[in-house]
């Protein structure tokens, strides 16, 4: 994906990423907490490398005790990126129009920090990750892509670093995103973003 299309994706999508964190049970719209909505008619473009590789089906982060199935996430009817449903059996979700883990580009996996009345979300301890710790994406073809954390950032949603998250990179990378910071009503003020690079296929 070229830089212009990545910026278009970020502009359309970042306002609705993980707005359901701490939100409502399944069956209620988790996007009502969104600080903004995508412009009319704007939809995140598909990544050129999204069709390559094998989709992730499980994610393990040993340092924080995460071992979760990974569901596919697409686009909601309004053109925003879907988020995992608010359910008792919370799991992470891979945005299927981002590169598959292990292929060139930033693969995007989303998860909740809290899931409404059900308590903690699958990414509740994401901010505790440290540089060098492993993230393992198990793929549909039975292989695994192993990543090493390069940095963890907590940023205000209004200052989401779109180019750093979605911009072109020279190799396979991973972005894990959840909510963080101060909780206000049903939402959170910040996003926690983990940046990781492939350490071995």
Automatic annotation (TrEMBL):
PROSITE patterns: PROKAR_LIPOPROTEIN. This is Class F sortase. Residues 21-55 are annotated as: Disordered. Gene3D superfamilies: Sortase. It holds the Pfam family Sortase. Keywords: Hydrolase. It comes from the Bacteria. The keyword Hydrolase applies.
